[in-house]
């Protein structure tokens, strides 16, 4: 999960901290989040329920798999010609 941060203080190993207005961090670089205890998580967390998508009407449509001729089954295993 990518994360976008505002008003960040970045500290690299062996260097002085740098203040940044915005910082985006790619999800695979995040190990864990440390949140302050004063943060009320119950009001911030939203239950993520999957929404049921309404089915589209299928009257007059071609059934799946019946569109066009496809890409074929390949050309065999050899190169040009036989022996």
Structure in words:
The structure is a single chain. By secondary structure, this protein is mainly beta. It has a domain at 3-33. The chain has one helix and two strands; from the N terminus they run ββα. Strands 1-2 form a two-stranded antiparallel ribbon. A hairpin with a 7-residue loop joins β1 (3-10) and β2 (18-25). The longest helix is centred in the middle third of the chain and has 4 residues, at 41-44. The mean pLDDT is 80.
Number of helical segments with 4 or more residues: 1
Q: Calculate Rg over CA atoms.
A: 27 Å
Largest sheet: 2 strands, antiparallel
End-to-end separation in angstroms reads: 55 Å
Biased composition (Basic residues): 68-83
Domain Sm: 1-34
Subcellular location: Nucleus
Region (Disordered): 49-83
């Amino acid at each position: 999960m990518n994360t976008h941060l505002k008003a960040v203080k970045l500290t690299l190993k062996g260097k002085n901290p740098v203040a940044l207005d915005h910082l985006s961090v790619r999800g695979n670089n995040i190990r864990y989040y440390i949140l302050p205890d004063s943060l009320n998580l119950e009001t911030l967390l939203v239950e993520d329920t999957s929404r049921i998508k309404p089915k589209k009407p299928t009257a007059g449509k071609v059934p799946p798999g019946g569109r066009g001729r496809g890409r074929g089954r390949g050309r065999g295993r050899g190169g040009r010609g036989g022996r």
